Amino acid sequence: MAFKNESASKHGHSNITSNPDVKKFLERCPDVEVPTKKDLEEHIKKFYKVDDFHAELPKLLLAIDCSFYESFVDEEYPSRQVGYIKISSVLLNMEKYLDIGNTQSKYINPREIARLQKEIDTISLALPGAYVRLPECDTVTETFRKTLLDYLKGETTRLNGKTLFDTLVVLIEYLGRIKTDQEGVKHIIFSKCAVNNCQEQAKAKGFKIYLDIDSGIGICPICNCNNYASDVLRIFEEFSETDSNVQADSRIMSFLEHLLAVHYIYYLWKNDFNLLSKMCVFLDGPLAIFGPSAVFRKAIMLLINDVREYAKKLGFEEPLIMGLSKTGRVYEHFLAADRISKDFIQKGTFFMISDEYRYRFIDSAQKDHKKNHGEGTYYGQDIFIKTKKGGKFVVSLAYPFKDKGEGFQTRKLEVDKYTKLAHAITVIQELEADLYDNSVVPLVLAHKHTSISLKPGGKVLDILTTEAFKKTK
Fold first, then answer.
1. Residue 280, phi then psi, degrees to nearest 5
2. Whose CA, among 84, 192, 352, 381, lies 20 to 30 Å from 154?
3. Could you give the CA distance from residue 157 to residue 180 in angstroms, rounded to a whole number?
4. Cα first-last separation, the chain
5. Tens digits of per-residue pLDDT, 181-219?
6. Who contacts 198 (Cβ-Cβ below 8 Å, separation ≥6)?
7. Helix 296-314 to helix 246-271 angle, to the nearest 10 degrees?
8. pLDDT in tens, 211-232
9. d(Cα 362, Cα 329) in Å, to the nearest integer?
10. Cα separation of 193 and 404, whole Å?
11. Which helix (H) or strand (E) holds 150?
12. pLDDT score of 304
């Protein structure tokens, strides 16, 4: 690494470019295969017309977006850091939104737009990074773990008395990790200590840690260290006490986006299902959880299925739960495929992305083609939509199944199983935004209130962090 204020050499790359081993490696790396028109004809099972899948817009649309920023504490010690995460949820009343556009005037009243944007809720977190330790914690990592639990239990996430922690407990129960003892008391069960490898010392004893379901804390019987319910996410495994924690903060941000969506869904399920049945919950990104917390995609699938069955029992519609991938490998692929195939993918059409297609053109590094794509990460099906305007969207729609069983690669492509598919297409078609490529109005608004720019937003957070730590000295 370079010294501070040291300029890089103009010839620093020469040893790399002349190295025969580097050249040999690069030559062996395969090119990304872009399908020809003939490939598309062969591998796309069926195109559907969006006009054949029209439905009314949901009455309410809840869009959720997140961002994060890592800030240094002190200019003299820039390795000491704090991570900031911001989550915004935008609730749009679709009737009011459409009324704004239906005015006789050629101008839109800015006050009406401002009134719409007031229906926004924001949650902000500050998480300890490298070299930041709370007095009551033994290590920097424990500070990170405990702080995450404290935020999950915080007042800012409370809905009718229930916090994000309570919703996390619901998902933990769906995973079968909550047990009731002989006295009728429920505990969260850990089979692994988050601090030490105590389970290795106690295998013969059937090692378990019992966490109090209210406090979310349990004591390891071997090392007497605190284990926190937030440890179930296992994000602390990617946390560094001495280096940048962009990876860990990104994992938390992504998981919290999904957890917050479930938080709203669960609350309305238990308190106002009529309202939930009229709602679209819209996430930024695919319906998938990556990294150490990926196991929770299974719990979310089970919960959504229970909501679906409850809707059938009461004669209500199920809520629309969808995601939108604005970037990434899948979106990049379709931009290239659409350009090269010269309008083979026609405007006003869509198709389901099969595993066969994905393994051939998108994820060719995956060798086991018999395995479901996203087996341990996805809880939604990716669909490519090319709107009548020519907009290109990769939409993810919640799987209409409780789990992934036999024949799932085929079953998940059955269009008739997705009862909210027409509603999802209508949302994309009606709310397509001209401001950015592959953008929709709700996510544009959510991102506007969530994004933290490097300047001036990031600079302000740097100042906030350094000033706060000066006061504690």
1. -115, 125
2. 192
3. 27
4. 31
5. 888 889 999 999 999 888 777 665 678 999 999 999 999
6. 207, 220, 221, 222, 223
7. 20
8. 999 999 999 999 999 999 999 9
9. 7
10. 30
11. helix 140-152
12. 98
